[in-house]
Amino acid sequence: MLLAWTTVADRAAANTLAAGVLHGNLAVCVQIEGPITSHFRWEGRLEQAEEFRLCFKFMPAQLLALEAHVLSHHPYAVPEWVVVRAEHVGEKYLSWAQANSSHLAL
Fold it and tell me: What is the pTM of this model?
């Protein structure tokens, strides 16, 4: 299983992105957290912004399609996109994820 993160500026954008991913069968779960406060450097200045973080849970076969969808529908010019492999996933949760990703469109 893989996990990926991105952030958006408001809950409406987070809900829209999550719904599109799930409607397209590109992940088995999307969690939205926030608001969070992000501190970052943008165009040479230190910035602070309230954002909402999305965590996508999906199988490796979905990575390219999910990434393409998120990046093409993301409201930011330079969206955060971080993907990591889950080192350990509970057997029952992994079985649920595999069963729910077996019908996903590739």
Answer: 0.92
Strands 45-58 and 82-85 turn out to be unpaired
pLDDT in tens, the chain (106 residues): 999 999 999 999 999 999 999 999 999 999 999 999 999 999 999 999 999 999 999 999 999 999 999 999 999 999 999 999 999 999 999 999 999 986 544 4
b/e map 19-35, b = 16+ CB within 10 Å: eebeeebbbbbbeeebe
Domains of the chain: 2-101 (3.30.70.120)
